[in-house]
Every structure is written in C-alpha cells, then in structure tokens.
Amino acid sequence: MYGRIGKITAVAGQRDALAAIVLESTQAIPGCLSYVVATDSAEPDALWITEVWDSAASHRASLTLPAVQGAIAKARPLIGRFGSTVETTPIGGLGLQKAAA
Amino acid sequence: MYGRIGKITAVAGQRDALAAIVLESTQAIPGCLSYVVATDSAEPDALWITEVWDSAASHRASLTLPAVQGAIAKARPLIGRFGSTVETTPIGGLGLQKAAA
Questions:
Q1: Is the residue at B101 inside a domain?
Q2: Cβ contact (<8 Å) for A34 and B38?
Q3: Which helix (H) or strand (E) holds B25?
Q4: What's the rounded Cα separation, in Å, for the pair A14 and B77?
Q5: A99 domain residue, yes or no
C-alpha cells in the first residue's frame, strides 16, 4: 500500500469551497482504499487530506483522470499553500475499503 | 466527526513490534470510522496513525477499553517519542466505515 498525509492551506475564507471541490472528485477512484478530507481544529484555513492507495502507481494514475484534473484546475485558485506531504506505507487498520476496479 | 493525525517514533528497531501491538488493539472499536497505521517512507523508526471517530467522546471512551489499555501498556516500552498530534474534523471522503455499535 501507499499513503499520503498532506496539509493544504486555502486562500483566506475559501477552505470550505476548496474542500467541496476535493470531495467532489473523490468518487470510487481506481486503487483508492481511503481518502479522508478534514479541517484542522486549530487553523481555520487548513485542510488535511489523508490517502491510502493500493500502490503509488494508482495514485499517480489518478492524477491523469479527467475528473481529478478538472478538480485540480478548479481548486488551484483557492489554494494558498501546500504544507509538506508525508509519504507512508500503510500496513493495516480499519476503514481500508476494497479498491474500485 | 473527530479526527487525529499523529506520529510516533519507536525505540530504534522496535517499529514493527510497536505497529503489531497497535494493530492488534484496533478491532471494531465503538465509534471508530477509520484507523490506519502506516510506516513513514523516510524515517525508519516512525509510525503514523490516522484516525476518524464519530465523536471526540468515542475516542476518549476507547482509551478506557481493556483491550486498548492493555495495548498501551505493552506498547509503552517500545515508544521513543510522540510527535505532535493534529486534531481535525473530518468532513467526508472514502473509506469511512459505519461505526461498530
């Protein structure tokens, strides 16, 4: 498995609009086992995205999907800055769904 | 929903033993919607635990369960240090299972 933990800070006041765009694009993407969008309890403009994929290749491939590319284009003007993204190797737990074909 | 993103660094060489203890304790805990244990791709002794709960109260309650308390006691000698834990409010995504009753 391949995982990512990343923080995105929206342009001031645009966090919820940014979250809505990100959530719209996360519908049964091939190889995606978990994809959770969360607001930060302490920073009003920040979002956390935690992802689990069956492989890094599936994650890379997702970035070429029209739905994802459309979301990235819509989201870009709402993004203030990206925090550093941690890459992980998930080893187990709860809430890892079967990958969509 | 209530979420946590936390990093734990194991005593050198004990990461996998620590991960096994953590994973053992995460079986259908009431209110837990997602709980993923992952190794860090860059730091050999580090684990990331990303959690989604139906409420902060369910998370707090889980810490009093005998299985979880037992796991904490077994894990403690293997923990080198805790990183800062981010508290979040998950708003949606994929892989959020129904809470166990």
A1: no
A2: no
A3: none
A4: 44
A5: no
pLDDT score of A98? 75
Residue of chain B whose Cα is closest to the Cα of A26:
B93
In a domain, B96, yes or no: no
**In the prediction, which pLDDT does B12 show?**
97
ipTM score of complex: 0.92
| pLDDT tens figures, B28-57 | 789 999 999 999 999 999 999 999 999 999
B36: containing domain: 2-88
Task: For residue A95, give the nearest of B78, B19, B18, B49 by alpha carbon.
Answer: B49
Find the farthest-apart pair of alpha carbons in chain A and give their distance in angstroms, rounded.
Answer: 37
Query: What mean pLDDT value characterizes chain B?
Result: 94
Q: How far is B22 from chain A (nearest CA, A)?
A: 9
Average pLDDT per consecutive 10 residues, chain A (101 residues; last block may be shorter) = 98 97 88 96 97 97 93 96 95 83 56
CATH number at residue B14: 3.30.70.100
**What residues of A are in contact with residue B92 (Cβ under 8 Å)?**
23, 36-37
Contact B15/B69 with Cβ under 8 angstroms?
no
For chain B, the domain total comes to 1
Query: What are the phi and psi torsion angles at B77 (to 5°)?
Result: -70, -15
Q: Which residues contact A4 (CB under 8 A, 6 or more apart)?
A: A49, A50, A51, A53, A59, A85, A86, A87, A88
Question: Residue B99 pLDDT more than 90?
Answer: no
